[in-house]
Predict the structure.
Amino acid sequence: MDICCLDLEGVLIPEMWIKIADQTGIDDLRLTTRDLSSYDELMRHRLSIVERHNLDMKHIRDMLKDVEPLAGALPFLKWLHRHFLVFILSDTFYEFITDMRRKLNDPIILCHHLEISAHDQIKGYRLRQPDSKRVAVHAFQKLGYRVLASGDSYNDVTMLQSADTGVWYCPSEEMRRKQPQFQVATTYQQLADIFRAASRCHPPAFSGPMHARA
Amino acid sequence: MDICCLDLEGVLIPEMWIKIADQTGIDDLRLTTRDLSSYDELMRHRLSIVERHNLDMKHIRDMLKDVEPLAGALPFLKWLHRHFLVFILSDTFYEFITDMRRKLNDPIILCHHLEISAHDQIKGYRLRQPDSKRVAVHAFQKLGYRVLASGDSYNDVTMLQSADTGVWYCPSEEMRRKQPQFQVATTYQQLADIFRAASRCHPPAFSGPMHARA
């Protein structure tokens, strides 16, 4: 079997910080990994806003409770799990996606942890390791697997580069222009077709509902 | 989150070669990794019998089609997937477990491939890598995870040794005596309780149906 590595936010679920921006009205929280290439800079920016506005984990969990997977993500993931070994490689935090992981049927997600105080305040974050998506792809290759990968943002570039096949999923025009060497999918159907063609394990075709990002 | 690594046959599903022995009446196929410490010797023994008796993959797939997960395995796996990142590390072959993987709800299984001819005959086997269970545990630890592991046989020993917590699940008396340093579980309830106590992620209790191997 082959391994598929997928980014989470923007590929299977909405951007969680944008949802928090929507709910709180704090426009400064709209920056994502699609806008800023330094994840550390982005997180320091976010956490300073969280502190200034006194947002604790209880608030944030409540705001994220009703967020649903993107339209079509569940049948696509079901097909993918049947025919590949699926790993979701994300720079989000386990504390943010407890409910969402359940909605996705408890897939393997490799991401990071927040540091939460006894009073539910976000005190900081612990990146699991530097360049964690690339390191994970290399680890799977060293276990003897062929790795196909897809993402949409700056923090996916080294994952796509190190995978045996890397695919943009609904990238911004800027990402696409900066890294034009990867194939581009804008629907789950296209992504499934590219994965099928790249796999040596002959998975049957996916025929899910069409989905393009709004 | 923490990672759980589980052996497959004897822990979640019956021994597949024993099922083939039952169906064919070939008693020589009853040896398993619980009996022989050299996996290569065991596989050469099995494949020579398969060839002598003209068993092809179609026969074998038909024989294995009705094999079901062990009683209680599905609720245990469901609980485990919710609270851990679950990897099934097995020395079986993807070609043997296509139907069984589906019955287990398509979990991540790292195992090996058989070499199958165009006429559906088993020509040989390709081990993914030497000591593959231990290598996988190390890879997960290098990705920054704590690894809990459980198995029942010779080929699980290095996995249990390299895990942060290793647990025997229904081992033979011989295995238990030879490697007495590991805790022992004989039901999924006990295994879940040991994993809970060893995890730093505070999973809630499992309360599934009791199960001891017949």
